[in-house]
Specification:
The chain is an alpha+beta fold. Helices cover 37% and strands 27% of the residues. It is built from 10 helices and 13 strands. The longest helix has 17 residues, at 295-311. The termini are far apart.
């Protein structure tokens, strides 16, 4: 953490003409004595840090000391900021703030980017117009789970947890390799010791997560397993007709050209992976959809409809 703090102090000093020790102490969440030792360390490392006492004093970098900032274009930096803020929605806030601080120029909330010869410097606002919230309503639990899994991957340690799914619930121990955000949800990918195979586990169904003491020897992940889309195959082929009033819901879920307009209504043919998800999704349309294929899904809809009706008798 000291190296991270020293880099942060250097960045602040390069971007501001002068800053006080209390300001640095507050920003990096340490006391003034620690900041004093950090300044001494920077001086010993050859960074020309100047300290002035009294009114108008403070800490600054000697004039003439420059840092080349021409590595990133404005467009590249804008993308980085948007991505960092997205990750910040499921990460400890201070980690992202420190990273953004290294991009933040002169404390104005804008990041400076040098351009090619003949062009003046431009600035990219840290207040990007793109907002990405990867946490939804579960930030507290989600952040803790992700941080635990990240630590397990870095330290090659097993994790164990209770898992709830359509067939019931079970206790699993796995070798974790990746935390993945895909299909609008967070997953952990790893080798399941119970199933002796590679598996994806949805974090919202995963509870009582524990970091185990035991380490594991990292396995080579088969190439086919690296295609995470292949974990979910569209084996259930649905053919259904929806009422025209449901057009916006179909477009919202599966795009503009996901159906064909017919005399009977909006005909949709699409593959699904999860049978329970499909049935629940169809039930959400009430009487405004008719399943044509497969028969097993149509029959299940009838059974569920009868159950619903029986509750209101």
């Amino acid at each position: 953490m000291k190296l991270d703090r020293l880099l942060g102090i250097i960045t602040v000093l390069l971007q501001k003409d002068r800053v006080t020790a209390p300001e640095l102490a507050k920003k990096f969440e340490v006391n003034r004595r620690t900041i004093g030792r950090d300044i001494d360390a920077l001086c010993l490392a050859g960074i020309p840090v100047v300290t002035r006492q009294g009114t108008g004093g403070g800490i600054s970098i000697a004039e003439g000391f420059k840092l080349d900032k021409s590595v990133l274009t404005a467009e590249e930096l804008s993308g980085i900021i948007a991505a960092l803020k997205g990750i910040g929605s499921i990460t400890e806030k201070t980690q992202i703030e420190r990273t953004l601080e290294k991009l933040n120029a002169n404390g104005s909330g804008r990041a400076g980017v040098s351009q090619s010869a003949g062009q003046s410097n431009r600035a990219v606002s840290l207040r990007e117009p793109i907002i990405i919230d990867l946490a939804s309503h579960y930030k507290g639990q989600l952040t803790e789970k992700i941080e635990t899994i990240k630590r397990a991957v870095i330290e090659t340690r097993l994790i164990e947890f209770d898992y709830f799914y359509e067939k019931g619930d079970s206790h699993r121990r796995i070798e974790p390799y990746f935390v993945i955000f895909q299909w609008s949800s967070w997953y952990v990918f790893g080798f399941c010791l119970e199933r002796r195979d590679w598996r994806m586990f949805k974090l919202l169904r995963l509870w009582n997560l524990k970091l185990c003491v035991e380490n594991y020897n990292a396995r080579a992940i088969p190439q086919k397993q690296r295609d995470f889309n292949a974990q979910f195959t569209d084996d259930i082929k649905l053919v259904a007709v929806f009422e025209p009033s449901e057009k916006y819901k179909l477009i919202e879920s599966y795009g503009l050209n996901c159906y064909t307009e017919t005399d009977e209504g909006l005909r949709m043919e699409i593959g699904f992976t999860n049978r329970d998800f499909l049935v629940n999704w169809l039930l959400g349309f009430g009487g405004r959809v008719k399943v044509l294929e497969p028969d097993c899904i149509a029959d299940e809809i009838k059974i569920e409809a009868k159950k619903i009706l029986s509750r209101y008798k």
